[in-house]
């Protein structure tokens, strides 16, 4: 067989084996290995390493996509100096992901604009990079979705999906009070998550005020009980970052 038809066959095999990186790079790697005097083993090692690295990157990208973060925010972009009330050591330790294996929760409590959603997203992204399945939900959107699923008799299926995750982020609990049915469904999520997966909850509400959102005192107690059994609490009680930022920009003379 000609060199050309062999190349075509090779291309076909690599596609069938789903090795897109090797398919793209084998020729350049062969030339590089030849000029460096590497043997066949080194060549194969180099190619398989590249394939593995890219495969992991593609999988992480898929996990990030299916987590449905509203905006991608990272720890690198978080200015801890602007928010001295936040326990940086704890945040960085959480980014290592051990809490996920222990199915512990994280609660971010504080006023608006202090970076709670930013940090929750950044922790979610770290989890994706560590191979975890993550889903970001606005608390209100989740409750609306739960009520819809119940209406369509799809709740059971939805709960099964939820339980396949390693981390669920519940963002902005407390801004809108829930209906009785909504609060009960949210409680259902928290109790299913309990000891099965981790929850990150961001809220502007101190514990004493959760009843105002959940309605029933008994339900609130039971929910907080599960949520806080194994929990890391990050308090963000500084000044709004948006306000600080706006003030800085006003102070700075424009155009220079
Ligand atoms: P919260 O959820 O506490 O209301 P956000 O996380 O939505 O606040 O933060 C508001 C905006 O300010 C976002 O764009 C966020 O990225 C940014 N932000 C907040 N705190 C910081 C910070 N310390 N460093 C960098 N950006 C920040
Ligand atoms: Mg927020």
Structure description:
With 256 residues, this protein is of the alpha/beta class. Helix content is 58%, strand content 12%. The chain has helices spanning 3-16, 20-36, 40-67, 88-95, 98-101, 116-129, 139-151, 155-163, 180-193, 210-214, 217-227, 241-251, and strands at residues 105-110, 134-138, 167-173, 198-203, 231-236. The chain has a five-stranded parallel β-sheet with strand order 2-3-4-1-5. Helix 9 runs parallel beside helix 11. The protein is globular, with a radius of gyration of 24 Å. It starts with a helix and ends in a 5-residue tail after the last helix. The model has no long low-confidence stretch (mean pLDDT 94). The structure holds adenosine-5'-diphosphate (ADP) and magnesium ion.
Topology:
Elements: H1 3-16, H2 20-36, H3 40-67, H4 88-95, H5 98-101, E1 105-110, H6 116-129, E2 134-138, H7 139-151, H8 155-163, E3 167-173, H9 180-193, E4 198-203, H10 210-214, H11 217-227, E5 231-236, H12 241-251
Parallel strand pairs: 1-4, 1-5, 2-3, 3-4
The structure holds adenosine-5'-diphosphate and magnesium ion.
């Amino acid at each position: 067989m000609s060199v050309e038809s062999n190349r075509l066959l090779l291309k076909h095999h690599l596609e069938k084996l789903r090795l897109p990186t090797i398919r793209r790079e084998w020729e350049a790697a062969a030339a590089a290995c030849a000029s460096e005097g590497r043997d066949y083993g080194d060549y194969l090692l180099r190619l398989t390493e590249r394939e593995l690295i890219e495969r992991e990157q593609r999988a992480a990208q898929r996990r990030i996509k299916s987590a449905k973060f509203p905006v991608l925010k990272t720890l690198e972009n978080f200015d801890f100096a602007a928010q001295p009330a936040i326990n940086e050591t704890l945040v960085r330790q959480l980014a290592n992901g051990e809490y996920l294996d222990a199915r512990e929760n994280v609660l971010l409590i504080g006023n608006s604009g202090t970076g709670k959603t930013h940090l929750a997203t950044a922790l979610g992204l770290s989890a994706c990079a560590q191979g975890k399945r993550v889903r970001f939900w606005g608390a209100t959107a989740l409750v609306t979705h739960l009520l819809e699923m119940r209406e369509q008799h799809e709740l059971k299926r939805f709960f099964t999906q939820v339980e396949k995750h390693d981390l669920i982020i519940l963002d902005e609990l407390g801004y809108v009070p829930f209906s009785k049915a909504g609060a009960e469904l949210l409680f259902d999520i928290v109790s299913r998550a309990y000891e099965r997966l981790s929850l990150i909850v961001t809220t502007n509400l101190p514990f004493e005020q959760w009843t105002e959102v959940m309605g029933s005192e008994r339900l609130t107690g039971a929910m907080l009980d599960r949520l806080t059994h194994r929990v890391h609490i990050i308090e963000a009680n500084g000044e709004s970052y948006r306000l600080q930022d706006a003030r800085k920009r006003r102070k700075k003379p424009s155009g220079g």
